Amino acid sequence: MFGGLRAQELLIVLLIVLLIFGARKLPDLARSLGASAKEFRKGVSDGSDEEAEAQASETQAVESPAPDTPAQDPKQPG
Question: Is the pTM of the predicted complex or chain greater than 0.70?
């Protein structure tokens, strides 16, 4: 998951991050990182949903060609 990093290496990386950012900023940093990841996942899923809808509409348009005569409004006589 972490590119082959072992527990000892991860601990060292976390210690360096703690030294760089300080204990007070870590919760804010983690919160903003989590929010960014959530927005990214939401954007990816929205993009794939839109892509699936576009493919479905293209398939539907190919399967059912437009009628030759325009549809009339039932409220208008004629």
Answer: no
Q: 13 and 5 in contact (C-beta within 8 Å)?
A: yes
CA 72 to each of CA 61, 64, 66, 75: distance values in angstroms, whole numbers, following the listed order: 21, 19, 14, 9
- pLDDT tens string 18-58: 888 888 888 888 899 899 999 999 998 888 877 777 777 77
User: What are the structural domain ranges in the chain?
Assistant: 1-44
CB 45 within 8 A of CB 39: no
Longest dimension (CA), the chain: 82
Task: Extract the tokens encoding 66.
Answer: 């437009």
Question: H helices of 1-78, where?
Answer: 7-21, 26-63
